[in-house]
Write a structure and sequence with these properties.
alpha+beta, 2 helices, 4-stranded antiparallel beta sheet, about 35% strand
């Protein structure tokens, strides 16, 4: 059995066990509620509403409240110097279709809804990154730190010596050119 539901001004075809992304709904995470705006129910027999099917309802569970990937909005008018750049993230709600009921018949899902708290997942990942950084810093012993510092100093000294050599060469060649000019003027 399937149903066509309307939410947020859009229509979605759903079956029991489907996961659907709809525009943001003001429902708590893990909340179970019914959608009564059913436009059509199909399957063994089809019922089309005018505009809604009476007695039909779809039971859903909120599994995620999040934002979509960042979309780039770029506007330009050529030869006018007009350029606008913006980004946008659309909020959405992910729904798990638990059951579709109509005319005494009910199509239920065998699966259970898995609720994902996006904020908690992000916080866990951030904590894991911080812990990994601390562990890496703790694993570096004082000997490694000293070696690294010594390498930096050695590189700097080598670089200073190379710079001094190039400066000396440049001044010698410059002095030779000046001397050559003076001798050519005298002659």
């Amino acid at each position: 059995m399937y149903a066509i539901i309307r939410t947020g001004g859009k229509q979605y075809k759903v079956q029991a066990g489907d996961v659907v992304q709809v525009d943001k709904l003001e429902q708590a995470l893990g909340a179970e509620f019914e959608i009564n705006e059913v436009l059509m129910v199909g399957g063994e027999s089809t019922a089309v509403g005018q505009p809604l099917v009476k007695g039909a309802k779809v039971t859903v569970v909120v599994t995620k409240q999040a934002k979509t990937r960042k979309e780039i909005v770029f506007k330009k008018k050529r030869r006018q110097g007009y350029r606008k750049f913006a980004t946008h993230k659309q909020e959405f709600t992910e729904l798990f279709v638990k059951a579709i009921s109509f005319d005494g018949k009910t199509a239920k899902s065998d699966e259970a809804a898995t609720v994902v708290d996006v904020k908690a997942v992000r916080a866990e990942k951030a904590q894991a990154r911080v812990a990994a950084r601390k562990e890496r810093a703790a694993n570096k012993g004082p000997a490694e730190v000293v070696k690294k510092a010594a390498k930096k100093v050695a590189k700097k000294k080598v670089a200073k010596k190379a710079v001094k050599k190039t400066v000396k060469k440049a001044t010698k060649t410059g002095a030779k050119k000046k001397a050559a000019k003076k001798t050519s003027k005298k002659a």
